[in-house]
């Protein structure tokens, strides 16, 4: 049986690789019990370091939309050159300061 494929970077996800389920609509934004996708942990971390839950719910609730985001596309291109089990720490949030009233 083939390994599942990460919907962000397109690399296979071997059983021993760090992996997690990503809720396409964040649980706190109505996605509890909704669709999830299996992905590399590093890819999942990058999504949440790049986009807020509001942004994920409003405009990035499909793998296609995530891949189309400029920063995530650049990340996916970079990580796709690494082995399927590659993992490294994701630096702290890169979205900038949190804004009130969103």
UniProtKB/TrEMBL annotation:
<feature type="region of interest" description="Disordered">
    <location>
        <begin position="81"/>
        <end position="102"/>
    </location>
</feature>
<protein>
    <recommendedName>
        <fullName>HNH endonuclease</fullName>
    </recommendedName>
</protein>
